[in-house]
Amino acid sequence: MGGVINKDLVYREFGIALAAERRRRHLTQAQFGAKVGLSRTSVTNIECGRQPIQMHQLYQFASILHVDASKLLPKEQALVEVSSTANAESKKASYIA
């Protein structure tokens, strides 16, 4: 894989996948938070990509949602495409400046 990965995008895409799976299981943020030992606010922040998680939490979340952990992770190709576009824009801006 080439290019730089935008960590904010990784967490935002992870949060979108987490929210989708949580809803598919008909769990509120508060219910999910109670199952994983987090507040509803923390779940909200994770789902919005504002709060990073630790690796063990990925597996805990996946277990609670009855999915493979990889299902919650963003697809690498999507991150590369966005990163490549961002890098091209950044290079273009540096030539203008």
Task: Describe the model.
The protein has 97 residues and is mostly helical. It is built from 5 helices and no strands. The chain is globular, with a radius of gyration of 16 Å. The protein starts with 6 loop residues before the first helix and ends with a helix. The C terminus is likely disordered.
SSE pattern: HHHHH
Number of continuous helical runs: 5
Output mean pLDDT: 85
Overall 3D shape: globular
The proportion of residues in beta strands is under 5%
- What structural category do the secondary elements indicate? mainly alpha
**What composes the largest sheet?**
none
The quaternary state of the protein chains shown equals single chain
Number of strands: 0
Low-confidence residue ranges: 90-95
| Portion in helices | 55-70%
The N- and C-terminal alpha carbons lie at a distance of: 29 Å
List the keywords.
97 residues, mainly alpha, 68% helix
Concise account of the structure shown:
This protein is mainly alpha-helical. The chain is 68% helix and 0% strand. 14% of the residues are buried.
Annotate the secondary structure layout.
Elements: H1 7-24, H2 29-36, H3 40-47, H4 55-65, H5 76-96
Helix pairs in contact: 2-3
